[in-house]
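Thread: Modeling a multi-component assembly for a lab meeting

Hi all, long-time lurker, first post. My supervisor asked me to bring a structural picture of a complex we are working on to next week's group meeting, and I have zero experience with this. I have the sequence lines for every component (649 residues in total). Could someone generate the structure of the whole assembly? Inputs are pasted exactly as I received them:
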Amino acid sequence: MNRRLPPAFALMALPLLAILVLGFLPLMVVVVWSVWTWDPLTYWIRPDFNLGSYAAILEAGRWMVIVSTLGKALLTALICLLIGWPTAYAVHFLAGRRLSLILLALMTVPFFTSYLIRSFSWRLVLGRTGVVNDLLIHLGLLSAPLDWLLFSNFAVLVGLVASCLPFATFPLLLSMRRVDPVLLVAAEDLGAGFWTRLSTIVVPLTMPGIFAGFLFVFVMVVGSSTEVQMLGGAGASIVSVMINDVMRVANYPLAFAISSVVLLVIFSVVLAGNARFGLARLFGEGQS
Amino acid sequence: MAIAIGIEAVTREFGPVRAVDDVTLSIGAGEFFTLLGSSGCGKSTLLKLIGGFDQPTAGRITFDGRDMAGIPANRRPVNTVFQGLGLFPHMSVAKNVGYGLSLRGLSGKALAVKVEDALDLVELSGFGPRDVNLLSGGQRQRVALARALVMEPGILLLDEPLTGLDERLRQQMRDEFARLHKRTGATFILVTHNQDEALSLSDRMAVMHQGRLQQIDRPALFFDQPANAFVARFVGIDIQLKHQGVTGHGDAAYALICGQKVPVRIGGPAAPSQTVVALRPDRLFLQSQDEIPLQEHAGRMMLTMVESRFRGLHHDVTLAFADGQTVVVTQAADRPVPEPGQTVAVTIAAGGAMLIPTADP
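Re: Modeling a multi-component assembly
Sure thing. I ran the full set together rather than chain by chain. Output:
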């Protein structure tokens, strides 16, 4: 019997360990602590099995925050795809080599500054005396500034889309690269006009990229807090902010219960999407 | 129904490059026409112009006399088998083949019947539900053919469709093209760099070079009367000799090559100084002492043996004139081969030597 481990295993051992320790261990702790007991009088956490924290999610409108967070994530992801898909199409199929490189570089510009600065800058754009209102009033389209532009769900959505857009565009671009241009010519040859070519050839073939882009944005929004804090209206909340608030009173089981629910939702989305669209196809050879 | 194609003074420029340079050509309805040329000669560009994937810079293209300018590819009665095939990887064989018809509004049973008929035609019956990604090269080729033919196009364009297939499959698909051409009666236009394909399939063919058509003829005429030295070399007439002058006319014309008088057939009106003598390899024979004397109209060259190369079924025997110009003659493998340095007589059968222009006049 060969007792020596295959070299591939030796090579993989460290990354595997890192993934387990850095990735799974904290998650497991989160899930385990979520079913422990929290005593509101002593702030003490006892390792006794208790679903009280999950029950507490249903109180004080917490579940509303989870639902609205998922709603924001869904909406942001869809808007990012609606903007990102045509962008990726244009960069890949329409722009020349030079132009597409420039466009790609432009897409990375938002990463040059921190989330905080970026979100704050939207205040200057959307505020009562911001760029948009000033312009609209100057043009005579408005007599008084619009109030709902800032500190509103609209502002949050604008901030989230601006932050997340590149994360939708890049996987889309990656999947566009895997579409052989001769397919479009062949479809045209068989009678397909521009829109038919998009809907029957390009969209189905970029489905893995569409899903990956959706997922990246969805997960990012669920984990975001800056945009809501900087741009949201009074009482606006999002899961991260709510968890932060709960942690402040040291109710770790409740914080972890909320996290576990969100985790469950995200894992379900990933698994369902992967079964349907095959994320692996975006990166691997799979079908070509 | 088959469609006749008129190409009238068509030019396609890409910046300073004329990919297609003032081409005029008419292709009859139901004809199998081949555009033959090496890569970059403009043949694929010309095909794209016919298919409507590109627009000519000047000139016009007509189908049955109707001007096709401004009619995009998806509304032309033309279908194409592309070099890369372009099978849709996310669709089954049946979905691929039925793609065009379903865009025309066909569905359900009517569509299924048409698709199955098309698959029968290319001998892929029952392959409908299969994954196109899992087919062999030849099968993929057939799916691409079926996908184009199911549209019942008046014109079928074949853009180097056999590239990338092994020799046996090429043979097979070549026979397939000929069969389908007969079955469908459509006008077939094949683009290829492979002269065997062109010769065995075409009713007529054109050799293209630097955007221009060098010669348009039935395949046999490319050997009997190559338009110029380029065409001759392209179809395999590699022996092209410089001469010192031409005497006589018509059937009694002779070219002087290194002091030897060689009877030649004069192809065109070109000035003798701009011509070469092309020798058809199939009409050259090594003559040994015991063989019958010269046939009528036959010429004879006295050459020095250089070397011989064994080719399996024959030898390639290289012989030289005194000035160093060489001639390669094939000699059956079981026949004797002269020793190097020996002087040998080579006979040229009637029509074996042609006086042709050096290049496009």
